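Blinded run. Sample ID left blank on purpose so nobody reads anything into the name before looking at the predicted structure. Input follows.
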Amino acid sequence: MQGKAIYATNCAACHGASLQGQPNWRQRLPNGRLPAPPHDKTGHTWHHPDVILIDIVKNGLVPGRTAPSDYVSDMSAFGGSLSDEEVVAVFAYIKSAWPPKVLRARKKVTLQRQN
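Blinded prediction complete.
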């Protein structure tokens, strides 16, 4: 699976080889930033529509657009190193790890945001 290999090379160092994120990802570090969240069912990735997730991967967390206006993050921007197809492949890999219950909940969240 192409997405799994791209994830392993570009994302796993922060978000975990098994999508588990960094320890205590909801607790701020001494520098005020949050650790990398998990991308498995325990995280909040599935709460966001694809367009937002793709923007975050390509541009990093941008205050006022994909993050609160005063938010500072360690999330790197991958727009210069990953193609759109590679980013989509990574998300296909991440989504393949989500159980049906999470996929159904994500579909509801996405529909609610569209209305």
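Unblinding after everyone has recorded impressions. The helical segments are 2-10, 12-15, 50-59, 84-96, 100-114.
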